[in-house]
């Protein structure tokens, strides 16, 4: 429950510190006194966005703090999930600096507005006079049914399943489109593949052919150079091997005088062996080099084919041609295997559809079951607030396709008077009737959702007299199980509160500011008497106020 609300430097409020009690808390005040300002401040700690410059004094920051007793509401998992410190008295704080920047804290831990809003939805339900319009929307009507039927977890499962089903539908459609496109290109792809496959392409072939081409074109020059080299090394009159042999002989003659010469002689002998090996290899290479005009023609023809293919397909290498061939082959195979692939995707899609449908049927069955019970309970509560002949009928019809809420279309049909035909509620209910229907529905929803606090913000539009008393009675009953804060203009409702606050304006120098005070018994009598008859109430109004408070 909301135990305390602190507001500093907000709109017409310099500083307020309000402590709320259990049960039914009443807030009254003249129109324009600032009740909506207090609600606006409360909305900020529940995650609403800042609008305009909400400063009483622009030189200071605005601070709103709410103190909530949450020990009985099983909220520890939410705090753990969002990495927040769980405290039985949780403090939510919102700060708005002079430059308009906003920060939010839960137990002194900074949080995002999304987290703040999620927590706020678990703490307080604010029902304003404008909220009666919600009852005309299918989304709200389904929300009520799902809240009473405990369908929340089923809806999460359903929506996840629906998302998976839609993805499988899209995947199947995309695959069919790709296959159709591939099928339309099949003849062209086959032509390309057959052409490339015919050439038996190898990734490194071009480089090897270009090297062989160079060798064949320069065979005569190569042979000449090889022969000249072997001649210089071994065959000329003064060749390298002969000179090395002569050098070794001369060094051997002086080896007895210079011992170090032995190592050098050995190195020359090794060089002689190495040169002989080189001469043999050069001779072998020279014999293998031939001027083969027919082979050169073959190489030139093959290279010409490869160059033509690259130019035709606007590619730069044989490696890219190989990649093109393999890619086209995969496209051809994809078309060949299309039936099995499509069949597999269709099986997956159908399985996801069946799973989604089964969950939707469970949700629908829960709604139908609770709808009957809800009709009876709403009619009972409407009877308590003076609508003894009111009837509510909830019609659920199956949709042809899923939507985010399942497979149901819902409509609330309503009749306020005996003998009056049931019609869509927005067509036949007056403003006062809508307020009472909404109050009856809300009293069911908040009870099932176990919220700590509900706030009724001037929902007494269109009701008065005895009906107002009965509306107050219903609020009083609701306050037995939860904290209720009611902002009202009706003395009949105001008299039901266990705590009664008055919002008022006062002059502070040249500034008007909003304030609030908890009234004592005498002040309550005076306030309710003024609500009955206006300023300066007479004795009759005072006595009437006393009777209302006693009742």
Description:
The protein is α/β, with parallel strands linked by helices. Among the domains are: 1-111 and 452-518, P-loop containing nucleotide triphosphate hydrolases (Rossmann fold, 3-Layer(aba) Sandwich); 186-336, no CATH class. 56% of the residues lie in helices and 19% in strands. It contains 19 helices and 15 strands. The protein has helices at 35-45, 76-81, 113-123, 138-148, 152-184, 186-198, 205-217, 219-235, 240-253, 261-288, 293-312, 318-336, 338-384, 425-428, 431-449, 465-478, 491-494, 521-533, 539-550, and strands spanning 2-10, 13-19, 24-28, 62-69, 89-96, 102-106, 109-111, 124-128, 391-403, 406-415, 423-424, 453-457, 483-487, 499-508, 511-518. The chain has a six-stranded antiparallel sheet with strand order 2-1-4-5-6-7, covered by helices on one side. It has a six-stranded mixed sheet with strand order 8-12-13-3-14-15. Strands 9-10-11 form a three-stranded antiparallel sheet. Strand 14 and strand 15 form a beta hairpin. Helix 15 runs parallel beside helix 16 (465-478). It is elongated. The mean pLDDT is 88. This is DNA repair protein RecN. Belongs to the RecN family. InterPro entries: DNA_recomb/repair_RecN, P-loop_NTPase, RecF/RecN/SMC_N. Residues 165-229, 261-288 form a coiled coil. One of its GO terms (biological process) is DNA repair.
Topology diagram in text:
Blueprint: E1 2-10, E2 13-19, E3 24-28, H1 35-45, E4 62-69, H2 76-81, E5 89-96, E6 102-106, E7 109-111, H3 113-123, E8 124-128, H4 138-148, H5 152-184, H6 186-198, H7 205-217, H8 219-235, H9 240-253, H10 261-288, H11 293-312, H12 318-336, H13 338-384, E9 391-403, E10 406-415, E11 423-424, H14 425-428, H15 431-449, E12 453-457, H16 465-478, E13 483-487, H17 491-494, E14 499-508, E15 511-518, H18 521-533, H19 539-550
Parallel strand pairs: 3-13, 3-14, 8-12, 12-13
Antiparallel strand pairs: 1-2, 1-4, 4-5, 5-6, 6-7, 9-10, 10-11, 14-15
């Amino acid at each position: 429950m909301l135990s305390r609300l602190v507001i500093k430097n907000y709109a017409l409020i310099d500083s307020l510190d309000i402590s709320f009690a259990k049960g039914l808390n009443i807030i009254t005040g003249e129109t324009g006194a600032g009740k909506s300002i207090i609600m606006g401040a409360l909305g900020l700690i529940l995650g609403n966005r800042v609008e305009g410059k909400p400063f009483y004094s622009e030189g200071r920051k605005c601070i709103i703090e709410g103190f909530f007793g949450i020990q009985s509401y099983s909220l520890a998992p939410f705090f753990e999930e969002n990495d927040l410190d769980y405290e039985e008295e949780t403090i939510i704080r919102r700060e708005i600096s002079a430059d308009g920047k906003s920060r939010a804290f839960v137990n002194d831990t900074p949080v995002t507005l999304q987290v703040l809003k999620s927590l706020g939805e678990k703490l307080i339900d604010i029902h304003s006079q404008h909220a009666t319009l919600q009852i005309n929307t299918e989304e709200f009507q389904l929300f009520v049914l799902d809240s009473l039927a405990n369908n929340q977890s089923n809806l999460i499962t359903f929506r996840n399943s629906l998302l998976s089903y839609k993805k499988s539908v899209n995947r199947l459609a995309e695959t069919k489109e790709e296959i159709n496109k591939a099928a339309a290109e099949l003849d062209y792809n086959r032509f390309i593949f057959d052409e490339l496959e015919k050439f038996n392409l190898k990734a490194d072939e071009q480089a090897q052919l270009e090297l062989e081409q160079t060798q064949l074109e320069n065979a005569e020059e190569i042979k000449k150079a090889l022969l000249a080299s072997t001649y210089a090394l071994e065959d000329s009159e003064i060749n390298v091997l002969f000179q090395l042999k002569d050098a070794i002989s001369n060094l051997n003659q002086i080896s007895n005088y210079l011992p170090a010469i032995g190592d050098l002689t050995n190195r020359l002998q090794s060089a002689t062996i190495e040169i002989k090996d080189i001469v043999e290899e050069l001779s072998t290479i020279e014999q293998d080099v031939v001027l083969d005009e027919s082979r050169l023609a073959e190489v030139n023809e093959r290279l010409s084919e490869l160059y033509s293919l690259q130019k035709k397909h606007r590619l730069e290498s044989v490696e890219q041609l190989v990649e093109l061939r393999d890619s086209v082959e995969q496209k051809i195979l994809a078309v060949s295997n299309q039936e099995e692939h499509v069949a597999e995707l269709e099986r997956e899609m159908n399985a996801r559809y069946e799973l989604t449908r089964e969950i939707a049927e469970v949700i629908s069955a829960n709604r139908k079951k609770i709808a009957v019970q809800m009709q009876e309970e709403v009619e009972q509560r409407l009877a308590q607030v003076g609508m003894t002949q009111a009837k509510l009928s909830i019609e659920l019809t199956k949709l042809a396709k899923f939507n985010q809420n399942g497979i149901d279309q819902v409509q609330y049909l309503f009749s306020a008077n005996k003998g009056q035909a049931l019609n869509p509620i927005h067509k036949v209910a007056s403003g006062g009737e809508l307020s009472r229907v909404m109050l009856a529905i809300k009293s069911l929803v908040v009870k099932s959702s176990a919220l700590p606090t509900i706030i009724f913000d001037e929902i007494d539009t269109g009701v008065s007299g005895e009906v107002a008393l009965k509306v107050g009675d219903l609020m009083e009953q609701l306050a037995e199980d939860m904290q209720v804060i009611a902002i009202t203009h009706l003395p009949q409702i105001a008299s039901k509160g266990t705590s009664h606050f008055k919002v008022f304006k006062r002059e502070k120098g040249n500034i008007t500011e909003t304030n609030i005070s908890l009234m004592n018994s005498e002040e309550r009598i005076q306030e309710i008497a003024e609500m009955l008859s206006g300023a300066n109430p007479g004795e009759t109004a005072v006595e009437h106020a006393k009777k209302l408070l006693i009742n």
